[in-house]
Write a structure and sequence with these properties.
Elements (H helix, E strand, L loop, with lengths): L3 H21 L34 E7 L5 E8 L5 E5 L2 E6 L15 E6 L4 H11 L5 E8 L8 H4 L6 E5 L19 E6 L2 E2 L2 H13 L5 E2 L2 E6 L5 E4 L1 H7 L1 E2 L1 E2 L3 E5 H10 L2 H10 L3 H12 L6 E2 L2 H4 L3 E2 L12 H15 L13 E2 L29 H13 L4 H21 L9
Helix pairs in contact: 1-12, 2-12, 7-10
């Protein structure tokens, strides 16, 4: 007979595993993967700035090679290094700046840093940090602390992992989640909210995909912009995204980004966009996903593997921004305005693209391009990173197992990630 501790652990696995089946698996999405364009497009500039017209700009394609010698990206650069308005079919649609992402080192291909945004939710924050600090791929956890009236809890200030650093921000607005005060030791950044948990293996799957395309956002949540006949764009909720089977945006509540994008958001993003985020206390995710798309020829984010996207655990919270009455109206305004300012609404090669989500009945791997065309990870023998090898071997085994077997293993994976939060009463047993 099981003792009480074993019974309790079994119940935790049963409850959270059941949540995976009832709550999370119903929220899966898939994305069409495609060979990423490597041309860096523009970031929207402040329209009050006068820019010189370049009629015969000498545009050159420059490339950077990573540590492994592979061509990581190409960026459209203007030889004189000046920002200029380029003419596309006779229309000055946006501003092109010379920007090149910092190449990844071997360390950047193995480890990532976490930036966790929080606000007066200490129990959730502690549970999230306790879990994510156990992930072997995490080099540092940066807690974005914007509460000038309270100090972080001792469990965070003196975290036993020695991975946790608290950033004290004097401004309380959502732009701050992307303003780095503590220098990150890695180029790979996991942006995550304090009420989100995912298994370490799921995060690794997203991270290792990001290392193959560091110029792209790797999102675990997809959304769609809606184009109305009158020309206005709106924000599409998850239900809209599912119904259309298309997506064009990713949420920053759980995504991987190149550290340079956070710096560019803080220092170079249109002040009109930046100020709107501060005013609305909303839309920083729309601003970031659109900014990255503007730099990558209007392409939407890549998505983590479907199995990884299915593993989200949402912690219980008393209040959230999405619960306010004007939330949808504000996000509609943000989508329409930000896309215009970043040149994503203009007809042409940089217009924001939409991609098909579900292309197959395989809800584990078939996210857009077929496994044989573009799998998330290369063959296990091609890497010396042990946890990457183990993950690839597990994924290869899943490809030959029955879906129920894979689902059961995912349920146990999620149960393990959420067991501590469940014991603290931060996970509801009811389906949502």
């Amino acid at each position: 007979m099981k003792n009480r501790r074993q019974q309790r652990c079994s119940r935790v696995h049963y409850v959270i595993g059941g949540m995976l089946s009832a709550m999370v698996l119903s929220q899966f999405v898939m994305v069409e993967l495609y060979a990423p364009s490597l041309n860096a497009a523009s970031i929207g500039a402040d329209r009050n700035v006068r820019l010189d017209r370049v009629d015969n700009a000498d545009i050159s394609q420059t490339s950077h090679r990573g540590e492994n010698g592979n061509d990581e990206r190409k960026t459209a650069t203007i030889d004189n290094g000046q920002m200029a308005a380029l003419d596309h079919d006779g229309v000055d649609d946006h501003v092109v700046a010379t920007k090149i992402l910092t190449p990844l080192s071997d360390f950047d291909r193995e480890f990532y840093s976490v930036r966790i945004n929080t606000w007066k939710r200490n129990p959730q924050l502690i549970a999230a940090v306790d879990h994510i600090a156990t992930c072997d791929g995490v080099a540092r956890v940066q807690v974005v602390w914007c509460d000038a009236d309270e100090q972080p809890p001792p469990d965070i200030l003196h975290h036993p992992s020695d991975k946790v650093v608290v950033e004290y921000h004097t401004i309380n607005n959502l732009n701050e989640r992307f303003r780095i005060l503590d220098p990150s030791p890695t180029l790979g950044i996991l942006s995550i909210d304090d009420d989100i948990l995912r298994p370490c293996e799921a995060l690794d799957a997203g991270f290792f995909k990001w290392t193959t395309a560091p110029d792209r956002m790797i999102a675990f949540d997809s959304r769609l912009h809606v184009e109305n006949p009158g020309g206005n764009w709106q924000y599409g909720y998850l239900s809209t995204t599912r119904a259309a089977n298309k997506y064009s945006m990713g949420l920053t509540r759980c995504c991987f980004l190149h550290r340079d994008y956070l710096d560019w958001y803080t220092n170079d993003l249109s002040r009109e966009i930046y100020n709107k985020v501060a005013e609305f206390f909303n839309c920083e995710d729309i601003a970031m996903t659109f900014m990255v798309s503007a730099y990558t020829d209007g392409q939407p984010p890549l998505l983590a593997d479907c199995w990884a996207m299915q593993t989200m655990i949402k912690l219980e919270t008393d209040a959230k921004i999405s619960g306010t009455k004007d939330h949808k109206k504000i996000r509609d305004e943000c989508v329409n305005a930000f896309a215009a300012l970043l040149g994503l609404k203009n007809d042409g090669p940089n217009r924001l693209q939409r991609r098909t989500i579900l292309k197959s009945h395989d809800r584990t791997f078939q996210c857009g391009a077929g496994v044989d065309e573009q799998s998330t990870l290369p063959d296990a023998s091609s890497t010396t990173i042990e946890r990457k090898q183990l993950l690839m071997q597990k994924m290869e085994r899943w490809r030959h197992e029955k879906p129920k077997t894979v689902q059961k293993e995912l349920s146990h994976m999620v149960a393990k990630a959420g067991s501590n939060a469940y014991r603290k009463g931060l996970i509801s047993m009811k389906s949502k």
